Amino acid sequence: MDDTITKLTILHSNDMHGDFLPKTIDGQEWGGLVRLSGYISKVRQEKKNVLYVVAGDMFRGSIIDQEYEGLSTIDLMNSLRPDVATLGNHEVDYGLAHLLFLEKCAKFPIINANLFVTMNSARLFQPYINVEIGGCRILFIGILTEEVLASTKQERIIGSFIDVKEAAKEVSIICDNYRTVKTDMTILLTHIGLEMDRQLAEALDPDCGVDMIIGGHSHSFMEKPEVVNGIPIVQAGTGTGIIGQIELQYDKEQRKLLSFSWKCVPINEKTAPKDEPLEELLDSYRTQTDRKYKRVVTRWARKLTHPCREQETEMGNLYTDSLQWESSFDVMMMGSGSIRKKELGPVIEYQDMLENTPFDDNLWMVEMTGDQIRTMVKHIMRDEAWTGETEFYQFSKGMHIRYNKTTRVLEELTFNGEPITPETRLKFAIQNYHFKNFDEFLGVPLEEVKKNMRPRVIATSVNNILEEYFATHEGLDAHIEGRIELVE
To answer: How far, rounded to the nearest angstrom, does the alpha carbon of residue 155 sit from its chain's CA centroid?
Structure first.
């Protein structure tokens, strides 16, 4: 091959969410950090110029991650040796100060261009990094989702730009200042979701020199790259059962890409060997958490599912009904994203329970009028909901919503069989995260809702309620009942 042409391989993961342990499907082991690391090591041995990058959300989803507040995750990820990682919205779940501590523990660079201190506009993280490999110099820039603001509402010294146009402007600023004559490629490492990646690519000036976007956040399983404004966009689903792989040929003399191909590789016994040293490290963490969390809480009647956030689900019905049982409010409204597993049961261990609802927080009670409820439901059902770009909710028994996605009409809204009218008043319970972002998530001004009744905390822990309810109710079951009817 011509000396001016360099072949590069870029492996990429996103939204691993503490998915450290393998799953057995049809007698075969799939996923898990040990085999993911084994695949990365295999490719590094077989190919000459290999990079491994992570597009955010390494944290949350595993009891091993929760028990050590991300420190175990950083320790385990150090074994995979990413060349660069960007922040996801769940990286801030344990607080900004703790995240800055975790960054010091990481043996790999973590970049982010849009978190800054509001007092002096100083960035909290290195916004970019130049990686040199195979004679090529690649500029990586890290961009985070607007949801980080929702997670840091109380940390007023922290700011972020959240608008796609502002993000495009920031990318251009970095490119103009730090993309030199030595820069061969510019890659955005984003955690903003596939739809916003499309918008960002469209908003970028072609002359700023962005060559591709490697994204995360929307958990998108893609069959092929999307190309917007000449920029390829890729994402590798979620978890550790899959990894994205880009193969490039770059002409250093002509300074252009000659070829670009991409695929997602399944991680299983056939494709990936085990990383034995990493397995020992992971086992040491698992032994500690098993002693504390591996006990049976209850047995459900059968396995229940939560396959998609943007619809009524079995687990959504069970969890909302459990929280609403013998309560002082009429409706439990639970964020669909608060339920993390796609299926669970029938045996429920304490570890399973905590991993399924890791965002343990207060419950607030608010009173809403019929008009406010109708406005809220229409806001939740807006077009962005179906692309995974907004918050969606599960409702306890009694609520019935019929929404036409084609005509965008709320055709029916009832509670206990009675129409919700302007005179209706219902008490809703919502989690602290959603209460703190009430206006944005629910589309109704909280100040207006406060006029109905002063909001108050009615429980300090969602998981305390769930554990007690599960422990005292054997054989729980739930079915899709038509609480949320979506008409095409």
So the answer is: 21
The domain spans of the chain are 5-286, 295-487
Confidence label for 3 from pLDDT (cuts 50, 70 and 90) = confident
Residue given tokens 């009524």 in the structure block: 312
Q: Is the pLDDT confidence value at 163 over 80?
A: no
Give the integer Cα–Cα distance in Å for 392 and 25: 30
CATH number of 295-487: 3.90.780.10
DSSP-derived 3-state class of residue 319: helix
Structure tokens at 185: 């490629």
Q: Taking the mean position of all CA atoms in its chain, how far away is CA 263?
A: 21
280 exposed, middle or buried (CB, 10 Å; 0-12, 13-18, 19+)?
Answer: exposed
Phi, psi angle pair for 225, to nearest 5°? -65, 150
Q: Are 130 and 137 in contact (CB under 8 A)?
A: yes
Q: Residue 159 has what pLDDT?
A: 54
CA dihedral 254, 258, 264, 270 (to 10 degrees): -100
- 307 burial level (CB within 10 Å; 0-12, 13-18, 19+): exposed
Contact 487, 402 (CB under 8 A): yes
